[in-house]
Design goal:
Blueprint: H1 2-7, E1 10-15, E2 18-23, H2 26-35, H3 47-50, H4 69-85, H5 91-111, H6 122-139, H7 148-164, H8 180-213, H9 225-239, H10 248-279, H11 281-295, H12 310-323, E3 332-333, E4 338-340, E5 343-345, E6 350-353, H13 355-359, H14 374-378, H15 380-384
Parallel strand pairs: 2-6
Antiparallel strand pairs: 1-2, 3-6, 4-5
Helix pairs in contact: 5-6, 6-10, 7-8, 8-10, 10-12
Keywords: Iron, Metal-binding, Monooxygenase, Oxidoreductase
Organism: Mesorhabditis spiculigera
Pfam families: p450
């Protein structure tokens, strides 16, 4: 907020020798990303994020997070279609989530000792809860106590890398890996990404081998994202396209992006929920009363109940506002000269929307530091905006 008060709604931050335009105003972000979204959709190809995603055979960047142009368009369309087919946004995925919730709460019950107390690492529970849901969509199986070490070997280094990453890393060239004093920092960020990539490659190879052995079939409806992709590869091969973006390398990176992006953001949101709710037991009691009045303690709450749980909805929204996950969105690059509010920005300019400034804007949210779900109950239009 100090930055916006001093420099305005749109300001430039110089990172090394690169100018990066930050947007900290709701109306300007709406203009740039929604109204002018077609000309501002190009991803900035950050070297630190693109090293593992660049195919050495054709030089293109793959994965829905960092790809651009035809690759991004085809894989985004395919991914959204398959996720919907697998139940995301519908009752099917809700059932998977509730099943996982039942499993995790049962595991917690097993660990309760005297006076029904237990010492638990909530981030471990939330990581596994989210990881199992995502992994079941990607590969059709979940992690349990027997193979938790496999999950931890991928997730822990990734957490460590993300915790130490700053905006500066996005603009550092790849050649710093050859500079002794900076090599370790480079490896600290790159190696965890490569570990997730290795995990994806391993899962794909096992599935392909099972298909060859006849112990797995991709005929009919796909069991998971991997099946759907392998089906798409067969379909694309019959069309004999001059440039096939559905390569194995593209598959690995699509998996990496779904796994990491979905895992990190959702786990962080749950962790923020835990922190904020434990500090505000009165909010927990109000949510509990609203849910029990609806379910009488005999069933899970479902998405179909959403219209009947205004306080619960407001609490979830306030958690996301106060936690402001991903305060700096993925950097993008302008493709033509355009307007950012009152400023004209040249083509090729790197910019990033700063959501944290909007979510903590006193002009929009009164007393923004305060955790207050009631603000969305009293003013429903605030949530819609």
């Amino acid at each position: 907020m100090i930055r916006r008060g001093r420099y305005g709604k749109v300001y430039t931050v110089w990172v090394c020798a690169a100018p990066v335009v930050n947007i900290g105003d709701y109306e300007t972000i709406l203009q740039v990303l929604v109204r002018d979204g077609a000309i501002n959709s190009k991803r900035y190809e950050a070297p630190f994020l693109c090293v593992a995603r660049t195919d050495k055979n054709d030089g293109h960047v793959y994965g829905t997070m960092m790809a651009n142009g035809q690759i991004w368009e085809e894989h985004r369309k395919f991914t959204l279609r398959v996720l919907k087919q697998l139940g995301v946004g519908r009752g099917i995925i809700e059932d998977r989530i509730l099943d996982e919730l039942d499993y995790q709460t049962a595991e917690i019950d097993k660990r309760l000792v005297n006076n029904n107390t237990a010492t638990l690492e909530f981030n471990r529970i939330s990581d596994l809860f989210v990881g199992n849901t995502i992994n079941s969509i990607l590969f059709g199986y979940r992690f349990d106590e027997e193979n938790y070490a496999k999950f931890h070997a991928v997730k822990a280094p990734l957490d460590d890398a993300f915790a130490s990453m700053t905006g500066l890393h996005n603009f550092m060239p790849d050649f710093i890996k050859y500079i002794p004093v900076l090599k370790r920092m480079h490896q600290h960020i790159i190696q965890p990404q490569e570990r997730v990539l290795e995990f994806a490659i391993e899962e794909v190879k096992k599935r392909v081998e099972s298909i060859k052995e006849g112990t797995w079939s991709i005929e009919g409806e796909p069991h998971d994202f991997l099946d759907a992709y392998l089906q798409e590869q067969e379909l694309v091969a019959t069309n004999q396209k001059t440039w096939d973006t559905f390569s194995d390398f593209a598959l690995y990176n699509d998996i990496v992006d779904i796994w990491t992006a979905g895992q990190e953001t959702t786990s962080l949101t749950l962790n923020w929920a835990f922190i904020l709710l434990t500090r505000h037991p009165d909010v927990i009691e109000k949510c509990r009363a609203e849910v029990l009045a609806l379910t009488h303690g005999h069933r899970h709450i479902n998405m179909v109940d959403r219209d009947k749980t205004p306080y619960m909805n407001a609490t979830i929204t306030e958690i996301m506002r106060r936690g402001h996950i991903l305060n700096l969105n993925m950097a993008r690059e302008t493709t033509v000269d355009c307007k950012f509010g009152a400023y004209t920005v040249s083509a090729g300019t790197v910019f990033t929307p700063n959501a944290s400034l909007v979510l903590m804007d006193e002009a929009i949210f009164e007393d923004p530091e305060k955790f207050c779900p009631e603000r969305f109950v009293e003013n429903p239009k605030l949530e819609d905006s």
